[in-house]
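My current task is to audit a protein record that another person submitted. Please read both lines and tell me whether the tokens look consistent with the sequence. Do not assume that whoever made the record got everything right. I have pasted the whole thing underneath without changing anything:

===
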Amino acid sequence: MSEQQGLFWSLRHLLGDLLEIGRTRLALFSNEAQEERLRLIAILVASFLALSSLVIGVVLLVIFLALAFWESRLLVVGAASLVFLLAAALFAWKSRSEIQNGPLLFSASLRELKRDIGKLRANLHSNTQNQDEFPPA
């Protein structure tokens, strides 16, 4: 009977360990999700402010240049349009590369889960070997 109690105790202990690992990983996952949410909000706010400032600055600059060079106003407006379109393309490229090269979502959680699986497999493998070495009497 004590062998059965030992088995049930081991199973309960294993289940408790697995639940604790799951709880820890879920907490890590939640933290990473919150960090990513805050990062995205910060990027959106900064992008909106930058875009708004850029639009106001562009409009004021074109008006200033058109007034300063009244005789060549078409050339000024055309050159300004070309410069700003090139700048927009550059910023779009930079934003796209930032999004593509950003950190992998939940990479720390995935790394920890992989480590846990490796440890569980190693423990399972060592327990199997121990049982083979010491058969029950």
Notes: The radius of gyration is 31 Å. The mean pLDDT is 79. Residues 2-133 form one domain. The first helix runs from residue 2 to 68.
